[in-house]
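Loading example: each entry is read as two labelled lines plus one structure line.
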Amino acid sequence: MKILVGIKRVVDFNVRIRVRSDGSGVETDGVKMSINPFDEIALEQALRIRESGQAEEVIVVSAGGDECQQQIRTALAMGADRGILIRTDGALQPLTTARALLKVVEQEHVGLVILGKQAIDGDYSQTGQMLAALWDRPQATFASKLELGEGTARVTREVDAGLETIEVELPAVITVDLRLNEPRFVKLPDIMKAKRKPLDLIEFSELGLSAENDLAVSNYHPPAARARGILVENAAQLVAELNKRGLVQRSGTPSRSTKK
Amino acid sequence: MTKILIIAEHDGNTLNPSTAHCVSCADAIGGDTEILVLASDGQAVAEQAASTKGVMTVHLVQGGHLEAPLAANWANEIVAMADGYSHILGPSTTLGRDLMPRVAALLGVNQVSDIMAVESSHHFKRPIYAGNAIVDVQAPEGTTVVATVRTASWSGAEAGGSASVITHDAVAGPVSHTAFVGLESGGSDRPDLQTAKVVISGGRALGSSESFNLIYALADKLGAGVGASRAAVDAGYVPNDMQVGQTGKIIAPELYMAFGISGAIQHVTGIKDAGTIVAVNKDPDAPIFELADIGLVGDLFTVLPELTELLS
């Protein structure tokens, strides 16, 4: 079985986000870029499946400019067998990304697709579900546990109500949550080895797709700041302050709405 | 003509409050608002939906395979009903985030994720980068808007409506490739995190699941819901359904009290819309104090019992 893992180049999650003053976007010049953390978890899971003998090959795919080759090389250093870059100048929105991924899935006869549950830049959380829909295959999103059986996957999903378990037939699309695993660190010799691993380029323009029904995104701005708070010295002062603001009554129940 | 279909979230018996938040968003868009209840036996849920103010019609589609909210089954029913609606909305809960993109793809549109404000029928505001930036998003005119509603940005529509309920049979059969196995819930009878007026949360500094009893004691005094930081969940002190933050629940209680939570950006994202934020932490430099309306630098193991005592 081949496993396809999608990775996205994003602003590193430790970087403090700055919105450009002209509202045209988020500052990425001179900013550290990394693999989307959820995608690293997806890749780690794919590697573990291959190492357990349940898959033969792990392919990583990314869509974007040539600079995305850096993140693909990192994924290859982690242990992926080969990489594919769907080269495009503009950022693809989820529907178009899903359509492009479907092309790769069909070309490569992939048995399992593992993606991050969302990218930490656009926070869309759509691509995996869309790929599953277009492929007419099952989806198992927000996975915190994954067990492969004979042509099936049993997936525990982190949902608001707790932990939901579903069983899906393969091929399927699985999107992963943070607690699924802890991705391995890349070792220096692996970085050298990764340079020799194959990385194929596919021009997006040659896939026969066009970006349809894109959302127009504009007017990037920082969120409204909260008013500066106060410090109190001890529990008694805290209770007095809560009382003053009408947030707790003596009975301890909230008495006044402060919600905007 | 704006005609909005809201996908109801429920557990088979009770309508989830997230649905009423979607109705508020639909009110802001304007137009006729209808609710779709997909269920195995959904009469009770449909009646609750019908009593939501601002709702004109409730459609109840029943089928055994619709009992568990499997996206593959639910999406097929929604798509079968989509004709004639300008908007299809779901909550930005794990249900909506799983389901709605599948619907959007089947309808050939991108989804507008996490609507926090409505500018016009096809023009919205939404957060990106974990809420560190806000953007305007415009869906193409003439296409169906499929969207999730950021529930913390909207208050719930009130009761007092009297919509009619129309019952339909499911049109699509069950998909054979996906089966529901089970749901293991945290099993707390405390107020639901996403609707509680007061939420008390604990972080890694609690140090153990036993120490969370200090949090529960205060929460019981205040009738509060109990949350936790990712660190506390990862450490195994509490189950995952208590996690507040970007990868957990995004909440907007009137009062939020954080104990021993440093205030990592991923946690802060989940509480920014709270009315008043109280932080208690030993570390005066903890980032949570930048956000807190009332801060107390101190040891939570001293402060928590004192507070519980003082509020008795």
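Chain A has two domains: 2-206, 228-260.
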